[in-house]
Amino acid sequence: MPPSTTQREIRHRLIRELLRADRVQSQEELRKLLRQRGIRAEQATLSRDLHALSVVKGPEGYVMPEAPLTPLSGRAELVHICGQYLVAAEHTGPLLVLRTGPGRAQPLGLALDTARIGAMLGTIAGDDTVFVAMRDPQSAERLARLLRALAVGDEVDEAAFDLEGRGFGGGRR
Predict the structure, then answer these.
(1) Residue 28, CA atoms < 13 Å, CB-side half-sphere
(2) From 79's CA, which of 61, 106, 142, 154 has a CA 20 to 30 Å away?
(3) Is this prediction's pTM over 0.70?
(4) Digit-coded pLDDT (tens) for 83-103
């Protein structure tokens, strides 16, 4: 039986409070902190909760986003994260492989997801690698070039995120 909305809301509120108050390094640590406050949650439930709250795990532990992310704020976050974390961006066919330092892939994956890049189908983030699936090889190539430009601090305008034709890297070939 799934938890009631009330239980989930209480758990989410408590998770937000715990993550803002302390550095939490693991789901097991978070589970114990919740249990100390009378809330029982299994690992699978915590994983769903952390995803629903847009929590990412970085080098300092789990981190709550500062504000709700919109596509525009997500793109600003992507610009910032690429400049800070992206080490390499390579593509093959419609797939990209993005490299970061240890513990930095999840924030980059979240920034890509919230930037809502039209030609992007989805991301999978590990510890230091993000896989990105694109609609076609041309969009993958354009996104790789865009991300490399952001990583070195190049300024881009909003049109750069239109990878399906007129954006970064020119028009259709």
Answers:
(1) 0
(2) 61
(3) no
(4) 999 999 999 999 999 999 988
